[in-house]
Design brief:
It is a single chain. By secondary structure, this protein is mainly α. The protein is globular. The protein starts with 15 loop residues before the first helix and ends in an 11-residue tail after the last helix. The model has no long low-confidence stretch (mean pLDDT 88).
Length: 88
């Protein structure tokens, strides 16, 4: 398991793409640890989707989150999420 550290002082604004890059690292670390502990990938995926949607609803409300989710089927079909995931 890798240890992720705080990259920025609390007062310094950080670009969204950089926040996403670091967030992905945190999630990959947690995912790897959970898989190592025997949690199945499908269970992790469903739970991650639940938490992600719950966060979007909490932040933006149900209707904007629903509109976002409606667009996911086209993005999936277009291959936007078809990436090689490294398994450790």
């Amino acid at each position: 398991m890798s240890m992720t550290t705080n990259f920025w002082p609390a007062h310094e604004p950080v670009a969204e793409h950089e926040q996403k890059r670091v967030a992905l690292g945190y999630l990959q670390d947690a995912w790897t640890e959970a898989r190592h502990d025997g949690i199945e990938g499908d269970c992790l995926a469903q739970t991650a989707l639940f938490l992600a949607l719950a966060e979007l609803i909490s932040t933006y409300g149900e209707e904007p989150a629903a509109r976002y989710a409606e667009k996911l089927s086209d993005r999936i079909r277009n291959g936007e999420f078809s990436v090689e995931i490294l398994r450790q």
